[in-house]
């Protein structure tokens, strides 16, 4: 098999590429990336050492696809992945990459009749609807209840039939618009496609920053003993997310690559689920236990733009169709990331500290 992974020097792209090459040494894997994300440059040598071909290129440029060979599958994992991107009034890079760039990726896949696997996001679900959901405030977190004002949500989390009307951030909109185009290419051009709407994905080699990659940010701040803040929802750190280890995501993508006929055209929510979820407050406790460090955390009651109180993935559909479910929990994720910081302390300090 020949596979192109766009955003292949990013966190998800490089992790998938290296896992694929390790499990299928005969596969030829090409990783295209423009290294926009700070820290992605560290992945280039990891890719090369693993026997993967790194191609410096930009998905915004049609010409950058010309030098690429024909492939059997494209995994589209390039993006400006921050939910805050463009909200300052400068959406060009975001839209040109996440939407028009996806079109270039689709056309390349079409040219070579390659299967197309898309990394979409839970952020396609509208913010205001999520913010009106019924929840209980527990001692350390907010939790969804079963009794809800809209369909597609229960205490298990948010499912694919959650209503889509309403604003969702420019990031979420570029992803949803890409999804719509992918469905057209699937229906009218016969391209085999899968859309994965992922909640928070995390693990070693994520270059966490304030607006993207909260898990690594939280652990790194503990590791280097810096300051953090609980922003919004009263400033108590009860906002909750599910966390998907990238190794769990890999098992799903591996299955999809090799069984695409069984899920061709599907949209699948895929995330850590309730079992692998945490509030910031709970995450702080785990970070303290694993790193042995306690840092100051300021409390800021005002909620930040585009933030949501909680997001949990309901994995029912993906599990029913593929048998996949996540296996790695939050504590193990924190332990693995801490170990990765320890092992790569010097290289990571200028990026994550
Ligand atoms: N990390 C998460 O929590 C999460 C959750 C849901 C969905 N996703 C999606 O998964 C995908 C991968 O995200 P990630 O976490 O690895 O982010 P990342 O920033 O680590 O990786 C994205 C990569 O794309 C590259 N890139 C950006 N613009 C580009 C362009 N114009 N041309 C070529 N390369 C470009 C960046 O340099 C980076 O290496 C994205 O599509 C993201 O939207 C991520």
From TrEMBL:
EC number: 5.1.3.10
Record's keyword terms, sorted: Isomerase
Top-level enzyme category: isomerase
Superkingdom field: Bacteria
UniProt keyword RNA-binding, yes or no: no
Pfam families linked to this entry: Epimerase
Protein name: CDP-paratose 2-epimerase
Lineage: Bacteria, Pseudomonadati, Bacteroidota, Cytophagia, Cytophagales
